[in-house]
Each structure stands twice: as structure tokens, then as C-alpha cells.
């Protein structure tokens, strides 16, 4: 329980912090974090294509057991996927692009995503693979400027397949409720941030078009 509490706190900090920084401190729109209806049909079409390609490559290599074994891992992947999409793609691009430009911002975000996995006992080639994967994900976000190109399909599916295939993580079914609670708090925070932006003028910095919110 203590381990889950620390894990959940880290996920929440990685979402609530960027929301507060971008909307409250900088006065920018949630569209700068990719929470927008702008370009949504094209974004979802691209998300489906990328997710289908990813599933076609990884699905044949995964052996699923009973639902009680993989459903908690799916809940984990969806929740962590939202954190990673917000923090490592949208937020880092929003922070670094105004300072260094788009290409360096994408590279920094991909590098930090790989560094985030230091301590997992991964080899150098695995870390390089994660950096490349982070680069692909960040480019997809930079092209669409919409979080939903990554979540809830692309990044959660990739993490889910990898976790199931590894077989190193097992969790009880009750853990699903914990992940649902964490995701609900994230979504509630995004909604409150949206309400905040509607009450004050918004300064646009990174993305060129104004857009409305679409949360979870």
C-alpha cells in the first residue's frame, strides 16, 4: 500500500504540476498541453493507424493469461500513459520549445523519457530503444499538437504489451480501483484547470491556434 501511494503521488505530481504551471502560473491554454478538440478527427485517425501498426507488430509476441492477470496491467498502462503523454510529450515540449525551438525540444523530451527509466536495470541498447520510442511519440505529438494521438491508444497499448510480455509485474484485481482513482483525480484536475482558463485571459506561447478543451 505504501509503495502504491508513492507511485500514485508521483503520477499525480507529474500531471497536476504541468497543469498548474501552464494554466495558472503562465496563463496559457490547455491546448498547449494537447488537451484540445482542434484537429481531433485527423488526430484520432492517425492514432488508430499508429496503434494498429503497433499492435500488429507486438500482439503476436504476447501470450495473455487469464483476465485477472492482465486487466490490472491494462489499468496501469492507461493511467501511466496519461501521465507520460502529459509530462514527457506535451509539457516538456511546451517548456523547451519557446526557449530552444521545436527540434531541440523534441530531442530533450525524448532523452528525458529514456533517462526516466534509469534504475530499471536496462542495458544500453534498451535505453537507446526507449529514446527512439520517445522520439517517435514526441514527434507524433508535435505534428498534431493533440494529446489524443498518444492517449488512450498508442502509449498505453505499447506499455501494456511490453508489461504483459515481460511477465515481471503481477497485481491483484483490487489494484484497478486504485488506478481508476488516480486517473479520476487527473481528469478532475484537468477540468478545474479548464475552468480556470475560462475565467482569465490566456497567453498563447507554443501552439499557434486557440482551441477548446476535451478532457478524458
Layout of strands and helices, then pairs:
Elements lengths: L1 H24 L14 H19 L8 H34 L1 H14 L8 H21 L9 H13 L8 H24 L18
Outline of this structure?
This protein has 216 residues and is mainly alpha-helical. It has helices at 2-25, 40-58, 67-100, 102-115, 124-144, 154-166, 175-198.
Radius of gyration: 17 Å
H-E order: HHHHHHH
User: How is the main sheet built?
Assistant: none
> In terms of per-residue confidence, which ranges show pLDDT below 50 for 5 or more consecutive residues?
206-216
Q: Which structural class should the secondary elements be placed in?
A: mainly alpha
Q: Work out the number of β strands.
A: 0
What is the CA–CA distance across the termini?
26 Å
- Strand content range: under 5%
Count of separate DSSP helical elements: 7
Descriptive account of the structure:
By secondary structure, the chain is mainly alpha-helical. It has one domain. It starts with a helix and ends in an 18-residue tail after the last helix. It has 7 helices and no strands. Helix 1 (2-25) packs parallel to helix 3 (67-100). Residues 206-216 have low confidence and may be disordered. The radius of gyration is 17 Å and the shape is globular.
Distinctive features:
disordered C terminus
Amino acid at each position: 500500500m505504501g509503495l502504491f501511494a508513492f507511485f500514485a503521488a508521483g503520477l499525480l505530481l507529474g500531471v497536476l504540476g504541468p497543469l498548474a504551471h501552464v494554466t495558472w502560473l503562465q496563463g496559457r491554454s490547455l491546448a498547449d498541453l494537447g488537451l484540445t478538440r482542434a484537429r481531433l478527427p485527423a488526430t484520432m485517425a492517425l492514432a488508430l493507424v499508429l496503434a494498429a501498426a503497433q499492435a500488429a507488430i507486438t500482439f503476436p509476441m504476447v501470450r495473455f493469461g487469464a483476465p485477472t492477470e492482465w486487466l490490472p496491467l491494462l489499468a496501469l498502462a492507461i493511467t501511466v500513459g496519461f501521465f507520460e503523454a502529459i509530462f514527457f510529450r506535451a509539457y516538456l515540449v511546451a517548456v523547451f520549445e519557446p526557449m530552444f525551438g521545436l527540434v531541440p525540444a523534441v530531442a530533450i523530451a525524448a532523452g528525458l523519457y529514456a533517462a526516466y527509466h534509469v534504475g530499471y536495470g536496462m542495458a544500453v541498447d534498451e535505453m537507446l530503444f526507449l529514446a527512439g520510442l520517445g522520439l517517435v511519440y514526441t514527434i507524433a505529438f508535435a505534428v498534431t499538437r493533440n494529446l489524443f494521438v498518444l492517449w488512450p491508444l498508442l502509449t498505453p497499448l505499447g506499455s501494456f504489451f511490453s508489461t504483459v510480455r515481460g511477465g515481471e509485474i503481477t497485481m491483484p484485481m483490487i489494484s484497478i480501483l486504485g488506478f481508476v482513482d488516480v486517473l479520476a483525480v487527473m481528469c478532475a484536475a484537468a477540468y478545474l484547470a479548464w475552468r480556470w482558463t475560462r475565467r482569465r485571459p490566456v497567453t498563447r506561447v507554443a501552439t499557434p491556434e486557440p482551441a477548446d478543451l476535451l478532457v478524458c
